[in-house]
Structures are given as structure tokens and as C-alpha cells.
Design brief:
Blueprint lengths: L1 H24 L4 H20 L13
Helix pairs in contact: 1-2
């Protein structure tokens, strides 16, 4: 039960962050732009952390 509540909170925060990113792109208030910046930074950190286990030469993003 606790894991379900925790997972629900994480999903809710992720959805709220995505809404703020879209709203900030359309010129939302300052607090929305701040939340959007934090959301994008967290997404970038997650994306980069997925690459740490791979070899440097095996990236085929080019």
C-alpha cells in the first residue's frame, strides 16, 4: 500500500512538471518557469545517468 502511494505521488509530480513545462513555454508566471526549469534539469540528470553504465565509444547518438 505504501509503495502505491509513493508511486502515485511520483507520477503526479511528473505530470505536474510536464504541465508546467508546457505552460512556461506559453509564457506562464515566474513560479511556473521555475518549476519547468527544475523539471527539465531533473530530466536531463536522469537521461545522463542512464548513459554512465555504457562505454564512451559505443554511443550512437551522432
Amino acid at each position: 500500500m505504501t509503495m502505491l502511494v509513493l508511486l502515485s505521488c511520483v507520477v503526479l509530480l511528473a505530470v505536474a512538471g510536464c504541465v508546467c513545462v508546457v505552460w512556461a513555454a506559453r509564457g506562464g508566471p515566474r513560479w511556473v518557469r521555475a518549476v519547468a526549469t527544475v523539471t527539465l534539469a531533473a530530466g536531463e540528470m536522469v537521461r545522463r545517468s542512464g548513459r554512465t553504465g555504457r562505454k564512451q565509444g559505443s554511443d550512437s547518438d551522432d
